[in-house]
Amino acid sequence: MSERSYLEEISIRNLGIIEQSELELGRGLNVLTGETGAGKTMILTALSLVLGGKSDSSLVRHGSERLIATAQFSVTSDSKEQLDEIGAEVDGSSLIVTRTVNSDGKSKASCGGVTVPAGTLADVTEPLIEIHGQSANSQIVKPARQRELLDRFGGSAISTTLKSYQDIYGQYLELKDRIKAMKASANKRDGEIAELEEFLAAWAKLKAVRNEASTVEDDIKRLSSVEDLRIASSGALGALDSEESGALTLLHSARRFLDAAKGKDSRLEEIAERVAESLFILDDASSDLASYATGLEADPEKLDHLQSRKAELNLFIKRWGGVGSADDELVSLAAKAKSGKESIADLRGGDERIAELEKELAQVKKLLLDAAQSLSAARLSAATSLSTSVTTEIQALAMPHTKFFVEVASPDYASALKESDFTQLGCDEIAMQIQGQVDGPKIGLGKGASGGEMSRIMLGLEVVIAKSHPVGTYIFDEVDAGVGGKAAIEVGKRLHALAQSAQVIVVTHLPQVAAWADTHFVVKKSSDGSVVQSGVAKLGQSERVEEIARMLAGLEESSSAREHAAELLAMRG
């Protein structure tokens, strides 16, 4: 498989009926099987959490304080730039993402060792994984998602054309805004020119830098309170490090007592772990306090300079800025200064300048029209190819008479187009439809397909699209709904085909699908009457025969089912 991201491992603690499970996933087709209620969907739930999905306290295992879901991804160099922006650490090519949910519903997320909002997890992992279940099927009925899938399939032919269109569209909007602003200010240009010139001179003299206001404020607070800070840090350090009654001394003593009972009671060992963790945290804090106290130094001259600078910045913002924070106002004023000379040139040009820009706008609009037509043509070509390819796929998936169509509706470029016909994504409307029988009506996705059929259409789409624009990992839940027999074997074949260019993870009840796996996991449930636990085991070849035989016969120790299972496994060659 070519170099791309994939999911290496997922670890789960206290989620639903799962007490603790770990899955080391392979690069090809990974299949999860097991009895109904054994917790297979809990594994997908855990993955949804680390991908930034919505948390819910009801997911926490009964009697536990919190659930923890951790995923380890192998990421490509393309992903590292986005990860660097949030400060995430990548160990080699491995990225660790963790999500915890407490029993009170509070949730925390970390990415590469950095605490981040759940929404950031979604942004970071969105290019890595696609999940297809009922919720994903509901997304595909949306025109925006259908346009996105077509553009992905079209590859560079569409992306290059779209980029060219968007560049011209940006120029067009910018020119329109400039002309509009110039016309609005025609009657007050002299006053504005004088004010802009005064502002630019004052800004050049100020020489402000980004975040200077908050930095100056913080330094003033620190230098104004050196003695208070020294007392606070030294006192805290003493309370931690005192040889007789310091917190660290007492914690060391507590740890020695607990270590003496190590291995005698798991509950006490959990407490001991928390004490040890507290000891490490306080020890780090003690070192930081010592370093902080050493670095404190009064500097009256610097304090006077900072207070003068603060007054200078505040006076400038009061004169030229708004009511936002000082740093935000300085950013806005910097942008105003950057475009100030151009604004003055626009104001001085007057009506002649407006006429020049309107002439330029007409030329850009012609270029925009040509670019929009080129984009429509590229999409139309891709739509024809995608329709044919997906139809071939889904007809082999127990939908022999169904045809798939991607319709590209474009405006009449020969007529006078309205302003609203142009958008950031072109002038086309994309509609995916199916035809259930020969000469039957074309019906939009979501209106003429069941949940199981939608899952198979999604599978057909992804198999086709993956050849031109693969995602690192695909996850399918309920892709085999309403399928059996020969069609189930075809589902397995196509998942296997998709796994040649990407990692695929499938939850299935069908032995015909499970037989195509490169890596097979079984989720088992056991109950002692009060506590339900679920474990995940990776199967060897002989164990796979037994599991697939169980799936076939619904019972253990069936020799005929084992023979059938061996036949299914032999299909992979």
TrEMBL record:
The keyword Nucleotide-binding applies. This is DNA repair protein RecN. GO terms for molecular function: ATP binding. GO terms for cellular component: bacterial nucleoid. Pfam families: SMC_N. Residues 6-528 form the RecF/RecN/SMC N-terminal domain. NCBIfam families: recN.
